[in-house]
Amino acid sequence: MRVEDFLEKNEVREMTIFNRLVLNKGVVPFADLLDDLSISKASLEKDIGSLTDRIRVFNGQVSIQYDGKMIELAMSDELSLQHIQRMYLSQSIKIAIINFLFKYQEFSITQLTQELAISESSLFRKIKELNRHLKPFGIKIRNGQMQGEELQIRYFYFQFYRYIDNQSSLQAENGVSQMIQGMEKFLNRSIPSDNRQRLITWFSISRFRIHVKEKTYNELRSKMKPYMTDPLYRELQVFVLRYFSRYAVEVDEVEAMIHFSFLLSFPIITEEDFHEYKLIRNRHVPIASTDTFIVETIINHFKFRRLPYMLEREIAYHLTHIHTRMYFFQGDIEIYDYDEILSKEKQLIGKDLVSFARRLLDISRNMLETHTKEKGNGHKMEVLKYTSLLILISLKMTSVIHIGIDLKMDSIYKETLSELLMLRIRPINGVLIERYETGKDYDLILTNRSPLEKDYYDGARLYLLSEIMSSFDMENIQNIIQELNH
Amino acid sequence: MKVVIIGASFAGVAAALEVSNRYSDAEVILLEKQVTLGYIPNGLHLYWDKKIEHLNDARFTTREQLEKEGITCCLHAEVQKINIDKKVIAYDYHGKEESIAYDKLIIATGSHQLSDKIIGGSEESVLKYKWYDQAQAALSRVKESQRVAIIGGGQVGVEAADLLIRQGKKVTLIESMDYVLFKYFDKEMIHPITRKMVEAGLDVRLQKTVSSVSMEPDNTTTVVLGNETVAADAVVMSVNVRPDLDFLDNRIELNADSTIAVDCYLRTSAKDVFAVGDCIQLSGPGEDRVYIPVINNAVRTGMVAASNLIEPTTPFKGSLRTIGTKVFDHYIASTGLTEAESAFTGRRVKSHRQEVRLSSYENAETAVLKWVYDAQNHELLGAQITSTADVLEKINTLALAIQTKQTIEALQQKDYFFHPSYVNMVSATNLVPWIGERTDRDES
Fold this sequence. Notes:
The complex is a heterodimer. Chain A folds into 4 domains: 87 residues, Winged helix-like DNA-binding domain superfamily/Winged helix DNA-binding domain (Arc Repressor Mutant, subunit A); 56 residues, Arc Repressor Mutant, subunit A, CATH 1.10.10; 115 residues; 85 residues, Rossmann fold. Helices cover 59% and strands 8% of the residues of chain A. In chain A, strand 2 and strand 3 form a beta hairpin. Chain A is flat. Chain B has 3 domains: 159 residues, FAD/NAD(P)-binding domain; 113 residues, 3-Layer(bba) Sandwich (FAD/NAD(P)-binding domain); 110 residues, FAD/NAD-linked reductase, C-terminal dimerisation domain (Enolase-like, domain 1), CATH 3.30.390.30. Chain B is built from 9 helices and 26 strands. In chain B, the strands form 7 sheets. A 6-stranded antiparallel β-sheet of chain B has the order 21-22-25-24-23-26, with helices on both faces. In chain B, strands 3-2-1-7-18 form a 5-stranded parallel β-sheet. In chain B, strands 9-16-10-11-12 form a 5-stranded parallel β-sheet. In chain B, a hairpin with a 5-residue loop joins strand 13 and strand 14. Chain B is globular. Chain B starts with a strand and ends in a 6-residue tail after the last strand. The model of chain B has no long low-confidence stretch (mean pLDDT 93). Chains A and B meet through helix 9 and helix 12 of A and strand 17 of B.
């Protein structure tokens, strides 16, 4: 599911026009846009007209000029594309439907058509469209209710209120901070403020959903079977039951299961607290064993003997989020443009890591037995997550290679060429390059003349430049750097 | 002034008595769903404990007593709807539709043991006996039963377990938390009593949630808890109670947990409508709003609502959730905040636990007291007592100390009588660390 799925087709086009304008420094030829959007001249003109109407709410802080040839955007420094997107989302009927459903849990068609001032047929159409996007989450709107596994419903609302309607009426009440405070004390772990925001959203949704009478937990119950004696789950169970015992609501252990799956799927507890938990958790349950297997596969792939202790801890923390989420949850709201990020990352790191990330995904899907659940583009975001993690590892595992440039030539050339060489080599990851200074230790020396004495550079590896700045030399240097890195 | 009160249990009766006593012009009408009134909730325990000869003796008041006070009692009157605009109540009276207008309305409909989660929980075979007619049914069923499963280890559940074990029954007590009576006691205080329970032959299943109860063809029941099952001849439901408010005008504001929202004068969002007892949330030991369905709150809120009928003059002071009972040969009592529950308050607390002798004699019985107090200003916030001697009344002293915001230092100087038969140097409720045996260090 994507943010655009909450908008109408023409609204998405209008947003695209805005995007193009911003990316092109505020000016785009009309003809280019026609090509880009592959629509008729009349439609584009209509879109521009609608756009101009809509931005009136910004009271002149943003304006669009169209002279028949060029479209020009002027925007105040205090506004960003995000404000425009938010404006579109705030008018979305589909978002209003989700909000209404969340707040009242149930609706009748008459009630909702009146509330949203739309016709029955367009309400049905919007619900149908929404249901198409809700399908990957395993939930649907039916008979005026959100139907499906309770965990999935809360997870969808969580994604929705974090990424789609984050300005909404979902205000944290007092009770939520009390709940977080209670949880921190019961688990004896403190939640950092960034993570707390996630938890506030989650708990706010959960407190609302507690009162829904008919809920389904079959899948969660079955997935939780290996975790019934998990130490964190046991602690959460005590906390959840005690917290809700203070109110006139009936809550059982499933509520604790819901929070357990959330707590380990997102960065909530700190890496340090997770590490402590990792030491006492059962290593043979699905998530823990997948974590271990994936770490080992990564270590083997990079031919590391082992990872530094702190890096391994960090990776385990991220991996557990990926795997817990895959194990318990399905569906995602794509907040980043998957293809764009992946192509950027590919440019940076080459195709190898991405295909390795895909291999990791296959392994974890098999181990977690989630392969049947998500089809097609399922777990797209997980590829990104694995790739990011692999980049992180390769960056952190790259040791710094000290390179000294020692050119033997007239000083005027020497200065310039040394600087140029440094400029070329500096962007290579994990190198420190400078002009050679006697007495300093180097891993690699670049020079244009063989030294007279054999051990002149104190055992540093030597590369003799054939022709300074040539692509031949540059490639050889890169190879040596890679060799030194392993 | 016509005052209609819905519900004639403790809250409703207390409100009715206060209204008729306070306002000479008031016409007080009590509408009660049950056929009788004044039954003491869980009066069956008194019968099992042989404190009363007949179940029907478990009454705190009678229709005659109330009518003597000028209160009209309509029994078997089930309220169907309230209209807050017209100030009219529609009710079903002996099967006929009736209506009554009010000037002031007090909702005191109490609570029920309800479970939507336990499959089969609402079946008749699952015994609930808060009310008289339920108790009658439960009485005969339990009498015939040898194996009894009790769902819920709160006060009612633990008392029932004790009484049934004493009758020689084979009893299983199922609690979803990691110890029983967790709302009132910290774990270490209740641990010795749990040991006694097990020694007495009670099968205690902790951290187990019942998912279903089903009736077998041979008239026995199977209770399913996770992967385990318990076979029983009778099942007693003693889970948390909840109000049942289907009849409410939906313009009356509710709290998130579906209790009626009231202000400190117990006024609801509707003009001239008050709510009391188990229908509301009130300010609890941690000073936030919580649900504490205990009888003393019912009585006190009933009286406070009555006194605020015309003018809001008396705010409700809140509840410390004070309880006291005897189970498995131990008198246990608690008031105010437990250390575990303090996690939900912004306060940092410290605690002190000590065993004190209850007289100056060498073989004196002892009591274990736990004090929970504010780490900063030393204000007493909670207290728990367990003993084999009857020390229950002492909890009221401590409740008053909490209500009047006494510090533990002030409690050291609390005046008391000395008599060697009842006191060992210093009164048990004067916190003097060197008296008696300190069972732990300050915990923070």
